[in-house]
Design a protein that fits this description.
Elements lengths: L6 E10 L8 E8 L11 E7 L6 E15 L2 E9 L2 E3 L6 E3 L1 H7 L6 E8 L13 E6 L4 H13 L7 E7 L24 E7 L11 H7 L1 H9 L4 E6 L1 H15 L2 H13 L3 E5 L1
Parallel strand pairs: 9-10, 9-12, 10-11, 12-13
Antiparallel strand pairs: 1-2, 1-8, 2-5, 3-4, 3-8, 4-5, 6-7
Helix pairs in contact: 3-5, 5-6
């Protein structure tokens, strides 16, 4: 990738979303002086973190948590970053993740290089009476936060049902919905919005988040919404999420064949949106 394809942005705000006792996740707001720059919910930027072992860059994709906002002649946008470590497959040693630690350690005024945005945006349905089903976990909530804010703040209201199914390892890690940050709580008064949370039954043993159980507890409404001719489904998070969700939806449908027929109809109508990583 040539330098000509890269952009730069300056960090203007860094906010921790999780309390000290939970894994660290930060909401980072960057500013570009180029007012023509545009990034939308559902898209990603490819952060070019400083590389190692002779490599100039260590690129990583991050979802947009807040679309571009024009402010004082520039553009601001946000990403959601979880600080993480990884285990070396050969030595068994634990090492800090290169890009996530680089981003979480940034100071106000520091600049990053990035490419993008990439991916298709999570645009809302054109009909405000259409249903919206959002399913995701971890930092996958980033585009949902942006979408929810868009339909209730920029558009003013939404008449169709809006349902968010969101999972995290523990309640402390419910991004934008925990004691440290209750950003999405401001929308609970909206008559069309409801959020359903799911956590891991055994977080210490890395048991999967019970997001599929949350869906099955609301099976009747989920199946009704997905059968409506204008409902849009949005899916965001780790690639492994898709398999558990597909299994849950097949169970809700009564068979895998029936679910595949419903899924294909949604996809054919352009009402299926996903960003998996």
């Amino acid at each position: 990738m040539s330098a000509a394809t890269l952009h730069t942005a300056t960090l203007v705000r860094s906010e921790r979303l999780t309390p000290p006792e939970a894994e660290e996740v930060r909401h980072l707001v960057f500013r570009r002086e180029d007012a023509s720059f545009e990034c939308l919910a559902g898209q990603c930027i490819r952060v070019m973190a400083p590389g190692q072992y002779g490599n100039r860059y260590h690129p990583r994709l991050y979802l947009i948590a807040e679309p571009d906002m024009e402010r004082d002649g520039g553009i601001e946008f946000a990403i959601c970053v979880k600080r993480h470590d990884y285990i070396d497959d050969f030595t068994g040693e634990r090492h800090p993740g290169v890009a996530s630690n680089y981003l979480c350690d940034l100071k106000i005024g520091d600049r990053i290089e990035f490419a993008g945005p990439v991916g298709y945006p999570f645009a809302p349905p054109s009909n405000r009476q259409a249903g919206i089903v959002m399913i995701g976990m971890g930092t996958g909530i980033a585009p949902f936060r942006a979408l929810i804010r868009h339909i209730y703040e920029k558009l003013g209201h939404w008449e169709g049902k809006v349902r968010l199914f969101y999972g995290a390892k523990t309640g402390l890690e419910m991004l934008y919905m925990n004691d440290a940050n209750k950003d999405l709580a401001q929308y609970v008064h909206q008559p069309t919005f409801r959020a359903f949370q799911a956590v891991s039954p055994r977080p210490a043993f890395d048991a999967p988040v019970a997001l599929d159980e949350a869906l099955k507890r609301n099976a009747a409404e989920v199946w009704e919404m997905l059968g409506a001719p204008e409902t849009h489904l949005y899916l965001a998070g780790l690639q492994a999420l898709q398999y558990r969700i597909e299994d849950a939806l097949a169970e809700i449908a009564g068979s895998r064949e029936r679910w595949q027929q419903r899924k294909q109809a949604i996809q054919a109508a352009g009402r299926w949106h996903e960003v998996l990583y």
